[in-house]
Amino acid sequence: MGREVSVAIDPHVHSEGSYDGHEPVERLLERAVEVGLDGIVVTDHDTIEESLRAADLAADYGLVGIPGVEVSTAQGHLLAIGVEQRPPPGDPFDETVERVRELGGVAVVPHPFQRTRHGVGKRSVGDCDAVEVYNAWVFTGYRNRRARRFADANGYPGVAASDAHSAAYVGRAYTELLLDVDSLDDLTAERIVDELAAGSATIEGRRQPLWRSASHYASCTGRRARGVDPRRPSLRTLGAVAGGAVVGSVARAGVAQFRS
Predict the structure, then answer these.
(1) In sequence order, what are the beta bridge partners of 9?
(2) Residue extents of the structural domains in the chain
(3) How far is the C-alpha of 36 from the C-alpha of 164, rounded, in Å?
(4) What's the pTM value of the predicted model, to 2 decimals?
(5) Per-residue pLDDT band at 117 (split at 50, 70, 90)
(6) Where are the residues of the annotated region Disordered (predicted)?
(7) If one looks up domain 3-256 in CATH, what number appears?
(8) Closest Cα to residue 33, out of 178, 248, 189, 205?
Protein backbone atom coordinates (compact mmCIF):
# COMPACT_ATOMS: atom_id res chain seq x y z
CA MET A 1 0.00 0.00 0.00
CA GLY A 2 1.38 3.42 -0.94
CA ARG A 3 1.90 6.35 1.37
CA GLU A 4 0.99 9.97 0.73
CA VAL A 5 4.01 12.20 1.19
CA SER A 6 4.65 15.90 0.70
CA VAL A 7 7.33 16.89 -1.76
CA ALA A 8 8.62 20.48 -1.76
CA ILE A 9 10.17 21.75 -5.00
CA ASP A 10 11.56 25.16 -5.93
CA PRO A 11 11.06 25.11 -9.72
CA HIS A 12 12.75 28.39 -10.68
CA VAL A 13 16.34 28.91 -9.55
CA HIS A 14 19.32 30.51 -11.31
CA SER A 15 22.95 29.44 -11.11
CA GLU A 16 26.11 31.18 -12.28
CA GLY A 17 25.22 29.77 -15.70
CA SER A 18 22.80 32.71 -16.05
CA TYR A 19 24.10 36.20 -16.81
CA ASP A 20 22.40 37.35 -13.60
CA GLY A 21 23.16 34.32 -11.41
CA HIS A 22 25.84 34.16 -8.74
CA GLU A 23 26.28 30.63 -7.38
CA PRO A 24 27.56 27.25 -8.55
CA VAL A 25 24.97 24.50 -8.61
CA GLU A 26 26.69 22.69 -5.75
CA ARG A 27 25.93 25.60 -3.43
CA LEU A 28 22.33 25.77 -4.62
CA LEU A 29 21.86 22.08 -3.89
CA GLU A 30 23.42 22.49 -0.46
CA ARG A 31 21.04 25.34 0.28
CA ALA A 32 18.07 23.30 -0.87
CA VAL A 33 18.96 20.68 1.74
CA GLU A 34 19.49 23.32 4.43
CA VAL A 35 16.03 24.82 3.97
CA GLY A 36 14.26 21.48 3.75
CA LEU A 37 13.41 21.21 0.08
CA ASP A 38 13.19 17.91 -1.79
CA GLY A 39 14.43 19.32 -5.08
CA ILE A 40 15.13 22.40 -7.16
CA VAL A 41 15.01 23.11 -10.87
CA VAL A 42 17.93 25.19 -12.11
CA THR A 43 16.43 27.30 -14.89
CA ASP A 44 19.22 29.42 -16.32
CA HIS A 45 18.51 31.84 -19.15
CA ASP A 46 18.72 30.07 -22.51
CA THR A 47 21.36 27.60 -21.35
CA ILE A 48 20.84 24.17 -19.83
CA GLU A 49 24.33 22.84 -19.13
CA GLU A 50 24.43 23.76 -15.43
CA SER A 51 20.89 22.49 -14.92
CA LEU A 52 21.79 19.10 -16.36
CA ARG A 53 24.77 18.99 -14.05
CA ALA A 54 22.62 19.92 -11.06
CA ALA A 55 20.11 17.19 -11.92
CA ASP A 56 22.93 14.65 -12.13
CA LEU A 57 24.34 15.74 -8.76
CA ALA A 58 21.02 15.99 -6.93
CA ALA A 59 20.93 12.40 -5.71
CA ASP A 60 24.26 12.93 -3.93
CA TYR A 61 22.48 15.54 -1.80
CA GLY A 62 19.41 13.39 -1.20
CA LEU A 63 17.35 15.48 -3.62
CA VAL A 64 15.28 14.75 -6.71
CA GLY A 65 17.09 15.90 -9.85
CA ILE A 66 14.91 17.85 -12.28
CA PRO A 67 16.49 19.66 -15.25
CA GLY A 68 15.08 22.75 -16.88
CA VAL A 69 15.75 26.07 -18.56
CA GLU A 70 14.21 29.54 -18.81
CA VAL A 71 13.70 30.12 -22.52
CA SER A 72 13.43 33.55 -24.13
CA THR A 73 10.51 33.22 -26.54
CA ALA A 74 9.52 35.95 -28.97
CA GLN A 75 6.80 37.02 -26.52
CA GLY A 76 8.69 36.62 -23.24
CA HIS A 77 10.20 34.12 -20.86
CA LEU A 78 9.00 30.54 -20.44
CA LEU A 79 10.13 27.88 -17.96
CA ALA A 80 10.75 24.50 -19.56
CA ILE A 81 10.72 22.10 -16.60
CA GLY A 82 11.76 18.49 -16.98
CA VAL A 83 13.57 18.86 -20.31
CA GLU A 84 17.10 17.68 -21.06
CA GLN A 85 17.47 19.79 -24.17
CA ARG A 86 17.07 23.53 -24.55
CA PRO A 87 14.28 24.67 -26.89
CA PRO A 88 15.62 27.27 -29.33
CA PRO A 89 15.34 30.86 -28.05
CA GLY A 90 13.47 33.45 -30.07
CA ASP A 91 10.71 31.21 -31.38
CA PRO A 92 7.04 32.18 -30.93
CA PHE A 93 5.57 31.39 -27.52
CA ASP A 94 3.09 28.78 -28.77
CA GLU A 95 5.75 26.94 -30.77
CA THR A 96 8.05 26.89 -27.76
CA VAL A 97 5.31 25.44 -25.56
CA GLU A 98 4.81 22.64 -28.05
CA ARG A 99 8.53 22.01 -28.24
CA VAL A 100 8.76 21.78 -24.45
CA ARG A 101 6.02 19.15 -24.45
CA GLU A 102 7.71 17.22 -27.24
CA LEU A 103 10.82 17.11 -25.06
CA GLY A 104 8.80 15.62 -22.21
CA GLY A 105 8.58 18.74 -20.09
CA VAL A 106 5.97 21.17 -18.84
CA ALA A 107 5.73 24.79 -19.94
CA VAL A 108 5.29 27.26 -17.08
CA VAL A 109 4.88 31.02 -17.54
CA PRO A 110 7.07 32.84 -14.98
CA HIS A 111 6.40 36.36 -13.63
CA PRO A 112 3.62 36.94 -16.20
CA PHE A 113 2.76 40.43 -17.48
CA GLN A 114 5.95 42.00 -16.06
CA ARG A 115 7.51 43.76 -19.02
CA THR A 116 10.67 44.79 -17.17
CA ARG A 117 11.34 41.09 -16.52
CA HIS A 118 10.37 39.90 -20.00
CA GLY A 119 7.11 38.43 -18.73
CA VAL A 120 4.67 37.13 -21.32
CA GLY A 121 1.74 39.49 -21.88
CA LYS A 122 -1.81 38.46 -21.09
CA ARG A 123 -2.81 38.23 -24.75
CA SER A 124 0.17 36.03 -25.57
CA VAL A 125 -0.11 33.42 -22.82
CA GLY A 126 -2.40 31.11 -24.78
CA ASP A 127 -1.91 27.42 -24.13
CA CYS A 128 0.55 26.47 -21.39
CA ASP A 129 0.80 23.92 -18.59
CA ALA A 130 0.97 26.23 -15.58
CA VAL A 131 1.46 29.83 -14.46
CA GLU A 132 3.85 31.03 -11.79
CA VAL A 133 1.33 32.62 -9.43
CA TYR A 134 3.84 33.31 -6.67
CA ASN A 135 7.28 34.62 -7.55
CA ALA A 136 9.32 35.63 -4.51
CA TRP A 137 11.36 38.12 -6.52
CA VAL A 138 8.83 40.97 -6.65
CA PHE A 139 8.66 44.41 -5.06
CA THR A 140 5.05 44.11 -3.90
CA GLY A 141 2.39 41.40 -3.73
CA TYR A 142 0.27 43.01 -6.44
CA ARG A 143 1.93 41.19 -9.33
CA ASN A 144 1.51 37.82 -7.66
CA ARG A 145 -2.15 38.50 -6.91
CA ARG A 146 -2.70 39.51 -10.52
CA ALA A 147 -1.02 36.32 -11.76
CA ARG A 148 -3.11 34.20 -9.41
CA ARG A 149 -6.37 35.83 -10.50
CA PHE A 150 -5.46 35.26 -14.14
CA ALA A 151 -4.58 31.61 -13.56
CA ASP A 152 -7.76 30.97 -11.58
CA ALA A 153 -9.95 32.69 -14.16
CA ASN A 154 -8.46 30.72 -17.05
CA GLY A 155 -8.03 27.32 -15.41
CA TYR A 156 -4.23 27.24 -15.35
CA PRO A 157 -2.50 25.30 -12.55
CA GLY A 158 -0.40 27.54 -10.33
CA VAL A 159 3.15 27.10 -9.05
CA ALA A 160 5.31 29.07 -6.62
CA ALA A 161 9.05 29.63 -6.95
CA SER A 162 11.83 31.69 -5.46
CA ASP A 163 13.39 32.84 -8.75
CA ALA A 164 16.54 32.84 -6.63
CA HIS A 165 19.68 34.32 -8.14
CA SER A 166 21.82 33.48 -5.12
CA ALA A 167 21.80 30.54 -2.74
CA ALA A 168 20.50 32.49 0.25
CA TYR A 169 17.12 32.86 -1.45
CA VAL A 170 16.58 29.29 -2.60
CA GLY A 171 13.30 28.04 -1.15
CA ARG A 172 11.98 31.52 -0.40
CA ALA A 173 8.93 30.27 -2.27
CA TYR A 174 8.24 26.70 -3.31
CA THR A 175 5.63 24.34 -4.69
CA GLU A 176 4.39 21.47 -2.56
CA LEU A 177 2.97 18.29 -4.08
CA LEU A 178 1.20 15.41 -2.38
CA LEU A 179 2.27 12.12 -3.95
CA ASP A 180 1.11 8.58 -3.28
CA VAL A 181 4.29 6.50 -3.38
CA ASP A 182 5.41 3.03 -2.41
CA SER A 183 9.10 3.89 -2.03
CA LEU A 184 11.63 6.63 -2.58
CA ASP A 185 12.21 5.25 -6.07
CA ASP A 186 8.77 6.58 -7.03
CA LEU A 187 9.92 10.17 -6.44
CA THR A 188 11.23 10.71 -9.94
CA ALA A 189 11.55 13.86 -12.00
CA GLU A 190 8.97 12.49 -14.43
CA ARG A 191 6.45 11.92 -11.64
CA ILE A 192 6.91 15.40 -10.23
CA VAL A 193 6.66 17.02 -13.67
CA ASP A 194 3.41 15.15 -14.30
CA GLU A 195 1.98 16.34 -10.98
CA LEU A 196 2.90 19.95 -11.72
CA ALA A 197 0.96 19.78 -14.96
CA ALA A 198 -1.97 18.09 -13.21
CA GLY A 199 -2.51 21.15 -11.05
CA SER A 200 -2.43 19.42 -7.67
CA ALA A 201 0.15 21.73 -6.11
CA THR A 202 0.07 23.91 -3.01
CA ILE A 203 2.13 27.09 -3.03
CA GLU A 204 4.13 28.55 -0.16
CA GLY A 205 6.48 31.50 0.14
CA ARG A 206 7.31 35.08 0.95
CA ARG A 207 8.71 37.90 -1.12
CA GLN A 208 12.32 39.02 -1.22
CA PRO A 209 13.17 42.09 0.86
CA LEU A 210 12.70 45.29 -1.12
CA TRP A 211 16.36 46.27 -0.73
CA ARG A 212 17.51 42.93 -2.12
CA SER A 213 15.33 43.13 -5.21
CA ALA A 214 16.49 46.68 -5.92
CA SER A 215 20.18 45.82 -5.53
CA HIS A 216 19.79 42.78 -7.79
CA TYR A 217 18.28 44.83 -10.61
CA ALA A 218 20.98 47.48 -10.24
CA SER A 219 23.69 44.81 -10.33
CA CYS A 220 22.29 43.13 -13.43
CA THR A 221 21.98 46.45 -15.25
CA GLY A 222 25.60 47.21 -14.45
CA ARG A 223 26.77 43.80 -15.61
CA ARG A 224 25.00 44.19 -18.94
CA ALA A 225 26.37 47.70 -19.44
CA ARG A 226 29.94 46.63 -18.71
CA GLY A 227 29.74 43.38 -20.64
CA VAL A 228 30.74 41.38 -17.57
CA ASP A 229 30.52 37.60 -17.76
CA PRO A 230 28.96 36.45 -14.44
CA ARG A 231 29.75 32.79 -15.09
CA ARG A 232 33.14 33.03 -13.41
CA PRO A 233 33.58 31.42 -9.95
CA SER A 234 31.98 33.52 -7.23
CA LEU A 235 33.36 34.17 -3.74
CA ARG A 236 29.89 35.14 -2.55
CA THR A 237 29.13 31.49 -1.86
CA LEU A 238 31.14 31.81 1.36
CA GLY A 239 28.51 34.04 2.93
CA ALA A 240 25.40 32.75 1.21
CA VAL A 241 24.02 30.98 4.27
CA ALA A 242 23.54 34.19 6.23
CA GLY A 243 20.11 35.29 4.91
CA GLY A 244 17.16 33.32 3.58
CA ALA A 245 14.15 31.70 5.17
CA VAL A 246 14.00 28.15 6.45
CA VAL A 247 10.92 26.74 4.75
CA GLY A 248 9.69 23.37 3.63
CA SER A 249 11.02 21.38 6.59
CA VAL A 250 7.61 19.89 7.28
CA ALA A 251 7.27 18.82 3.67
CA ARG A 252 10.73 17.29 3.69
CA ALA A 253 9.92 15.34 6.87
CA GLY A 254 7.21 13.50 4.94
CA VAL A 255 9.79 12.19 2.49
CA ALA A 256 12.42 11.53 5.14
CA GLN A 257 10.57 8.41 6.31
CA PHE A 258 11.98 6.63 3.24
CA ARG A 259 15.52 7.82 3.97
CA SER A 260 15.74 6.66 7.59
Answers:
(1) 39, 175
(2) 3-256
(3) 16
(4) 0.78
(5) low
(6) 1-22
(7) 3.20.20.140
(8) 248
